[in-house]
Each structure stands twice: as C-alpha cells, then as structure tokens.
C-alpha cells in the first residue's frame, strides 16, 4: 500500500515530534546498530502458528512455547487465525480454521466461542467480539486468493451470518465486522454498521471521546474498523475514526514510547491508567490502525505511531523485553516482573497481524 503524496502535520504535530524525538534518542540504545525498526524479512514466520494448531483448530493457550490442549479452543482465535491464513495463502491452515467456524455456527446465526479439550462446546454466552471477528474472517476468505472451494464455503457461511451484523451493538463487535464487511461487493452491510459505529463515536464527550467509561483492551481496533470502511464511505467516517485514534494515541504514547493500557486495573475515566499487565493485542491493533490511517492521510505522524507500536514487540517497551521469537511466537503479556513465558494463540495472532500490516510500510521512505 502506497500512501498519498499529500502529508500534513495534522492536529497532533506535537505527538509526531515527541515520537520522532524519542525514537531517535532510544533506537540505538534498544537496537544497537539499527537505524530502522526490525523488518519483516522475507515470509512472515508461522512455525508457532502451525505448532499451536491441531486437526480440530488452534489451541487457546500454551505453557511456555508448548501448546496446552487442556485449555481448549475458541472461535475468536480461530477466526483471527483464518484471517492470517487467508492473507498468506496457507490453504491447509485455512481449511482447519474455516472448518472450526463452520462447526461453531449456531442455528441463530451466531458463533459458539468456547470449546473444550474434548472438542465439544463449553458453556458460553453470545460474544460480539467473537461474532465480529468471525464475520471479518469469512469475508477475508471470500475475497482472498485461496482455492475456489474454500471461498465458496466461506461465502455460504457468510450468507447465513450476515444478518447478525446489524444486531451488533458494541464498538469492538462492529469494528471487527467492518474489517470484513468493507471487502464485500455489496456496500449496504458495511454502510449500515459503519454508520452505527460512527454515530456511537460521535455521541461521546469531547473530553472523553470513547464509547465506554473505561479504556480496556484492543482499543485501536475500533478506529481501525471505521477507517477501513471509510475507504469507500463518506469522509465523516474517516474524520470521526481519526479523532478516536488521536485520543487513543494521546493515552498510550508517552514521550514517544508506547505504554498500552494494562489489564491490571485498565483506565477508568477520571482515574489513573494501569501500566501493567500489557497485552500484545493492544500494540498489535495499534500497528494496524496507524498503518490504515497513514495510508488514508499520508500523515507521517501515523507512520511514526505505527513504528512505535511495532517496536514494542522488539524491546521498545517499559521493560526492554523482546516479546517475539524466530518461530513467530509472542509472549502473552508484559508485567512489572517482565515478559510472560507463555505464548498463546491471541498473542501470536496479534503479532502476526501486526507484522502483516507493518510489512506494507517497509521499503517506503520514512
């Protein structure tokens, strides 16, 4: 993806300058001898993804780098794994993950999320996050270069679940769905969901432009979905999404260093931001959102914000911990005591999706 040739300073030029200054000061210390953040050299590495996958699906958790089958499976993880497989053209893995979604589909058009080690459904309630991710994954396959039989199967399931898109009410559920709906030839489903999400974000307080009283997990997924829809929608969607993204950047970028909201207390409005434990889904989604924003606006500050989020995985974080390894595995979290030894599905997929997004910027002049 090439950015437009009309970059602008935008309303957050101070953030742009802070990020650039901090990166210039810290890069040599954190990555000795490197003038650029680590690149996705050659093919994205999926050895850990394969190791976490059995014939039934992607296993949810690991102990250290070793899959832990007793933790079961989720449609949530298998949907995101299907997105990765579709983008990389991994036919064998796409078959596994698509089959998982097919068996997870309930008669009402919603997906059952939790599955036990015995490969039977575990007690579960409806999850809008899961539903949105499954819609995203099915549309990715339908619009991919995977074999026609896989695309037809994805289309068949998508036809059955598409009516549920209009039932989504949460910002994340809608945003995840939009990442897929924006790929469909029929613009109506995406437009309906995007307009609802845009109105949801427009209705927020200017002092707290977020649709919930607490900032929690995977925050940047929300503006990312609306930005993706804005490629074929009105400029208003783009402006509202950028306002939301700029607010999130003001929260998670501290003097040029990415400090995601930690899950040990989150960040309630009027309270203090928790700094531990940080989860890879947050920098991962931020890479994706900022790459999308840069592609739409050409503003260098979004490229630099994507860089800061990408470098979090490689040691530009509060602990100086490298979170990934050559297999494509990613540690589950970053706490006060350092990085987790475990490398489960969600962390792995957050890293792989970030790597695919960051690779779109490689080779461009900074």
Descriptive tags:
mainly alpha; 5% strand; two-stranded antiparallel ribbon; 366 residues; disordered N terminus; Glycosyltransferase; single chain; globular
Explain what this protein looks like in three dimensions.
Helices cover 49% and strands 5% of the residues. With 366 residues, it is mainly alpha-helical. The protein has a single domain (13-359), classed as Glycosyltransferase (Alpha/alpha barrel). A two-stranded antiparallel sheet has the order 1-2. α5 (128-142) runs parallel beside α7, α7 (171-181) runs parallel beside α9 and α8 crosses α9 (221-230).
Brief write-up:
The protein is mainly alpha-helical and 366 residues long. The protein has helices at residues 13-30, 47-51, 75-88, 91-104, 128-142, 148-161, 171-181, 188-202, 221-230, 235-252, 281-297, 300-312, 345-359, and strands at residues 62-63, 66-67, 73-74, 114-115, 214-215, 253-254, 257-258, 267-268, 334-335, 338-339. The chain has a two-stranded antiparallel ribbon. A two-stranded antiparallel ribbon has the order 3-4.
Percentage of residues in helical conformation: 40-55%
- How many strands, what sense, and barrel or not for the largest sheet? 2 strands, antiparallel
Mean pLDDT: 90
Gap between N and C termini: 14 Å
Give the neighbour order of strands across the main sheet: 1-2
Find the structural class using helix and strand composition: mainly alpha
H and E string: HHEEEHHEHHHHEHHEEEHHEEH
Query: Stretches where pLDDT falls below 50 for ≥5 residues?
Result: 1-35
CATH class: Mainly Alpha
Shape: globular
Count structural domains.
1
């Amino acid at each position: 993806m090439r950015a437009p040739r009309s970059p602008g300073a935008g309303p957050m030029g101070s953030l742009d300058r802070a990020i650039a200054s901090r990166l210039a000061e810290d890069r040599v210390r954190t990555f000795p001898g490197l003038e650029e953040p680590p690149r996705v050299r050659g093919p994205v590495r999926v050895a850990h993804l394969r190791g976490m996958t059995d014939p039934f699906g992607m296993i949810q958790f690991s102990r250290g780098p070793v899959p832990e089958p007793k933790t079961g499976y989720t449609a949530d993880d298998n949907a995101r794994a299907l997105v990765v497989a579709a983008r990389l053209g991994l036919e064998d893995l796409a078959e596994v993950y698509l089959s998982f979604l097919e068996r997870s589909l309930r008669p009402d058009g919603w997906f059952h999320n939790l599955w036990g080690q015995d490969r039977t459904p575990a007690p579960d309630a409806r999850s809008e996050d899961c539903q949105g991710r499954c819609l995203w994954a099915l549309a990715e396959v339908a619009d991919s270069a995977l074999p026609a039989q896989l695309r037809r199967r994805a289309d068949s399931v998508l036809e059955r679940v598409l009516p549920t898109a209009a039932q989504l009410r949460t910002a994340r559920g809608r945003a995840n769905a939009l990442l897929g709906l924006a790929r469909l030839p029929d613009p109506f489903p995406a437009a309906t969901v995007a307009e609802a999400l845009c109105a949801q974000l427009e209705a927020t307080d200017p002092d707290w432009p977020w649709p919930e009283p607490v900032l929690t997990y995977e925050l940047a997924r929300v503006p990312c979905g609306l930005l993706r829809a804005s490629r074929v929608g009105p400029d208003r969607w783009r402006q509202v999404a950028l306002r939301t993204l700029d607010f999130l950047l003001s929260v998670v970028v501290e003097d040029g260093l990415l400090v995601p909201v930690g899950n040990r207390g989150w960040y309630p409005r009027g309270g203090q931001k928790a700094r531990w434990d940080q989860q890879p889904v947050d920098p991962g989604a931020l890479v994706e959102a900022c790459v999308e924003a840069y592609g739409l606006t050409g503003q260098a500050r979004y490229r630099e914000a994507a860089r800061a989020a990408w470098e979090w995985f490689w040691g530009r974080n509060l602990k100086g911990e490298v979170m990934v390894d050559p297999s494509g595995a990613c540690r589950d979290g970053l706490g006060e005591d350092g990085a987790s030894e475990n490398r489960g599905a969600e962390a792995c997929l957050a890293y792989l999706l970030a790597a695919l997004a960051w690779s779109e910027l490689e080779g461009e002049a900074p």
